[in-house]
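Table S5 (text form). Sequence records supplied for joint modeling of the two-component complex.
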Amino acid sequence: MMAKNYWITEEPIDPGDCIEKVVRNEAGAVNTFIGTVREFTKGKRTLFLEYQAYVPMAEKKLAQIGNEIKEKWGNAHVAIVHRIGRLEITDIAVAIAVSTPHRADAFDASRYAIERIKEIVPIWKKEHWEDGTKWIGDQQENTSYDTRIPSEEEMRDD
Amino acid sequence: MISVLFFAELQETSGRDKVTVEADGVSVNELKSRLASTYELPHLGHAMIAVNEEYSQEDTVVNSGDVVAFIPPVSGG
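The corresponding structure-token record, covering 235 residues in total, follows.
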């Protein structure tokens, strides 16, 4: 298992690896988020996905998200792993685990983590459909190439 | 010499994941317009730019030895 709490992998993800890194005596809650590959998006069938990352920067940005969580919620431990390469339907693309003394913070912080991943972490997915392929520009699936890209500061929601 | 990284659609369009540019003390904006014409990347202007693995502004000056990455809109998760 990786020694770090924020990492990119080409191997299948075991969410237990994240959980293990955040379990501790002070925590009364461990919340996990697991993002998986969906077959249908707006009626269109995905055959498989291909993920690419700027690995060293992506790991730094995941760690930054962990630090943001610690600033916002205080006593939180965080572990995040994202997979790259070819992923099949139902495969786990991302796993997040957050431990806090009480459950509300763990729920809120893991939600924050996945939303931030979609904003600032340099990871891209390529859809492979029956009739073609496309690198997806954002999670709303309306590629934002034609509008101005906000700065990282502008993307903060706090 | 500045190392430049392309990802996702930019990588496919340019046919390259990494190029080097002989330059020193240029703004990322200048570098961007130079690369956009050399590699015919009309979408380059809409990518965010990272210098040495940190998001930067368009007027950031890059020097020989720096690594500049063009970050198209991300879609992880």
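Note: The first strand of chain A starts at residue 6 and ends at 9.
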